[in-house]
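Journal club side-thread
Mid-discussion, someone asked how the predicted structure for our own chain would compare to the paper's figures. Pasting it here so we can look after the session.
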Amino acid sequence: MSNLRDIKRRIKSVRNTSQITKAMQMVASAKMRRAQELALRGRTYMSALANVLHHLGESLIMRGGTPLMEEREDGRDLIIVVNTDKGLCGALNANLLREVVANAPADAYYLCIGNKLAGSLQRLGREVEGSFSLSDSPTEAELKPIFDVIRKGFDERRYARVRVAYQKFVNVMVQRPQIVKLVPVEPQELLSVAEQGGMPDADDDADFLLEPSPEALLESVQRLYVSSMLVQLVLEGKASEQSARMVAMKSATENAKTLIDSLTLDYNKARQSQITNELLEITTAMKAME
């Protein structure tokens, strides 16, 4: 009897757990659709913005220059790690941490968007300057304090380069950890971003009227590009997070159902064995009374 009670208790416990994972799967699925929509829409916007910068002309960029496009040797790298605030998303954070450890310099400064990897990076001896928590649909206003840190550190030559480690959203089942350079902005990277978004090649022979001046426009669009790119990379990370969490919760729900079926079979076998033993005892007692 104690064995049957234990099995029934386990079945009840696993069934309750499966209800929780099923609910979390549904919530993650709803958030995933929204996050995917924002990430995919942002790619088109970033492509168009990169195309605008390219149209300013490579010669103008090289001649005029701005702090956000200046290559420099002094200072250390700043690595912005876009991870999650919550767990239950499979190996998403572990894969990103592995990419950072393998390809980011150990002597760099680190800034975490999301709290899950801050402690891990500190245990690995990395210098973590801080961590930020964002909503599921972050906006440029939420990321402004981070952009201000980047701008100040880059202007003061504390940072030589700023790179972002994030999970690129490929599809629901695939999220690819990547490290991309945010600043300084390179003309060749602008072309790459424009092509990724499906924008047509820039017309180098086109004649544009730029006001108030090409230099002022370059400065303004550059800052917009850097801040918007940071928002886009965070949105990619959010889409990857919700996709990974939905898949993990779906897998947990299916595993719970499989375990319930196995426990139910064990319960039925144990119950049948108990009934058989009771019938044998009754039969033996009847034989003894004859």
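Post-session note: The longest strand covers residues 159-169.
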